[in-house]
Amino acid sequence: MRRFILILSIIFLLNTTFASEWGIFELKTEVYSEKDKTSQRYSFLLERWWDESLGISINLYYEDYFKYRLGLQTSYLRSIYGYFEPNLNYYTKYLDLKGLFLGVYILNDEVYFLKGDDILSLGWQRPFTPHNLANFSITSYKDNYILDINLLQQYPLPLGNSYAIEEISLIMKESKIYISGILRGELSIGNFSLKGYIGTNHSQGFNLCDINPGELGGEIYLRTPLTPRLMNAFNIGYFHDFDNGLGRLKLGYSFEWLLSSYLNIESSISLEYLFKEIGEYKSSQSIQLNFPTMDGSLVGSIYWKMDNSAQTIGLKLSYQF
Amino acid sequence: MKKIFYNILIFIIFIIIPIFSQVTPESILKDMNQKWSNIKDFQMRLSIISYSYSSKGDAISQKITMDMFYISQPQIIRIEFIEPALFSGQIILLDYEKKIMRMYMPSTKQIIESDLTQTETYTMGVNIPFVSGKEEDFTLELTEMTEKNEKIYKLTGKPNTPELKTTLSYFEFFISKNDLKPLRVKIYDLEKRLYMDIIWVELKTNQNLSINKLRTLPQGKIIKQKTPQTTTPLPFFAPGK
C-alpha cells in the first residue's frame, strides 16, 4: 500500500505536458432512507490523466463504513485496488468486490489477474485488428469455474460510433458444462442512440447481470431527440424463464431537457413486471436537476431517486478539467 | 484637337482600363485569401441546406446549422452543431497543436478522442468554399449587385475539368464588397437545380477567442479511439450526380 501511494505521489510530481490531459473531480453526498434505516453517504473522486496510458484515480467513500478504490494506469500495467466492480464480462456485470486487479501489457496484449473475496480470475485480451478485440478469461467464483470468451467489433462512424459484442460463457460444475451466450450491439450518432442485447443465462449461472439464471430474453433501448433541446429515450425488454414458465417485462422511459445553458433536467421511470398468478412488480423513478457552468465543465446537481424499498436525495458537484 | 483626343486615349488606356481590370474574380479570391490567412481568430454561424429531388421534381431540403470557432495560433477549430436535432449538442474539436481530435457525443455523454493524422494544418482560405476543385478548374464570371443596401460581388463558376463537369453545372459565390466576407454559396447540380445552399449567418473576426474555452468540452467519459478517423468528420460534401 505504501509503495502504491509512493508511485502515485511520483506521478503527481511528474506533471509534464501530455497530449490528452484531462481529469475529473467529484464530491457527492446523499441521504439514503429505507424502512428501518436512514443514513448519509459521502463520496470523493479524483481522476487525473496525462495521456491515455498514464493516469490515476482515487475514490474514497462512506456507505455504512469507509470504502476506497485506487487506480493506476501506465504504459506497462494497470491496477485497481479496493472496492470496485471489475466488469470483466457481461455475466459478472454487477459483481461488486473488495480486491485487486492487475493487468500487464505485453506488446498489444494484456494479461490480467483479479483476486477478491470469492473470486479469482486470470485473463488475456488481444486486439486482433484495430477494430476487433478478443478477451478470454477463466474465473473461479464461489467454487464455480467459468470460461468466458468475448469478441468485440468496433466500427467508428464519421459522426458517431458503433460496436457489436458476442460473448459465450461456459460454467463447469460436477463434470458438466453449462453454456450461456449473449449478443450485444450499439449505434450512436449525435443525439441518436440504439442499443440492444439478446441472450441466455443458464439456470446454473449467476444472478449478476440483467438476465436472471434460467432466462432467455433481450432488451432494446432507443434514444431520439424530440427537439434540439429535448431528448427522450425508451427501453423495453422481455425475459422468459423456461424452467418455471414465468415471463418478466421491463419498460422504461427517460428524458433530458436542456432548459437553458445553466439548467437541464434528467428524469427516468422504469417498471419491471413479473407475470405470475398474482403479478409482482418493481418500479423506480428519478429526477435530477443539473446546473452546468464553465461551458459544462463544472456541474452542480441535485437528485432524487425512489424504488420499491428506498428513497435517496443527493447533491453532487463535479468538475472536468 | 488631335492632341486632346490622344490625351484622352492615353488616359483611358493607362488609368481607366487598369482600374477596371484590377477587379477580376481571381483578384477578389486572391484578396480574400490574403485577408483571411492573416486573421487571428473568427467565429461564425453557418447554415448548410442540401436539396434532393423526387421523381416529380419536388425539392426535399435538409438544413444543418453550426457554430464554428477558429484560432490560428495554436491552430484550433471547434464546431458546435445546432440543428438538426439529431446532431444538436454534438461538438467536434480539432486541436492541431496537441494533434488530437475530440468529439463530444450527447447521446452517450462520451468524448471520443482520436489522433489527428494530418501533419499539415488547416489552411484558412476562402478559395471557393465547399466546392471541390481548385480555382483554375472553373471559368469564373463576376457580377456586382446590391442587396439590402449592401454591395455584393457575385462570382459564377462553371467547371472546366471533365471530372467536375460530371458533378455540378455551376456555382454562385456571394461576397461582401465592403469587407470581403463570404455571404453565401449556391451549388447547382447537373440539371441546374439548386443542390446546396451555404449561408454565413454571422461572421466575426479577431474576437480574442480563448484557447481554453475552445478546448473545454461538456463532461463526458473520454474514450480513446485507436484508429484515427479515416473520413473527415465535417458534413461537407461535394454534390453528387
Word description of this protein:
Chain A has 321 residues and is mainly β. Chain A contains 1 helix and 20 strands. Chain A has a domain at 85-213. In chain A, 4% of the residues lie in helices and 72% in strands. Chain A is globular, with a radius of gyration of 21 Å. Chain B has helices at 2-22, 25-37, 162-165, 211-215, and strands at residues 41-53, 59-71, 76-83, 91-95, 100-105, 110-115, 138-147, 150-159, 170-176, 182-188, 194-205, 221-224. Chain B is globular and about 80 Å long. In chain B, strand 3 (76-83) and strand 4 (91-95) form a beta hairpin. Chain B has a single domain (40-224), classed as outer membrane lipoprotein receptor (LolB), chain A (Clam). The model of chain B is unreliable at 228-241 (pLDDT under 50).
Layout of strands and helices, then pairs:
The complex is a heterodimer of chains A (321) and B (241).
Chain A: H1 2-13, E1 22-34, E2 37-51, E3 54-63, E4 65-73, E5 77-84, E6 97-106, E7 109-116, E8 119-129, E9 132-141, E10 144-157, E11 160-173, E12 176-189, E13 192-200, E14 215-227, E15 230-241, E16 246-260, E17 263-274, E18 280-293, E19 298-307, E20 310-320
Antiparallel strand pairs in A: 1-2, 1-20, 2-3, 3-4, 4-5, 5-6, 6-7, 7-8, 8-9, 9-10, 10-11, 11-12, 12-13, 13-14, 14-15, 15-16, 16-17, 17-18, 18-19, 19-20
Chain B: H1 2-22, H2 25-37, E1 41-53, E2 59-71, E3 76-83, E4 91-95, E5 100-105, E6 110-115, E7 138-147, E8 150-159, H3 162-165, E9 170-176, E10 182-188, E11 194-205, H4 211-215, E12 221-224
Parallel strand pairs in B: 6-12
Antiparallel strand pairs in B: 1-2, 1-11, 2-3, 3-4, 4-5, 5-6, 7-8, 8-9, 9-10, 10-11
